[in-house]
Amino acid sequence: MGAATAAILRLPLSAVVLATLLTVEAGTGQEPLIIVGVVVAYLVTLLLSNVTAGLEPADQPVTNTEPASAVTREAAVAARERFG
Question: What is the pTM of this model?
Answer without folding.
Answer: 0.61
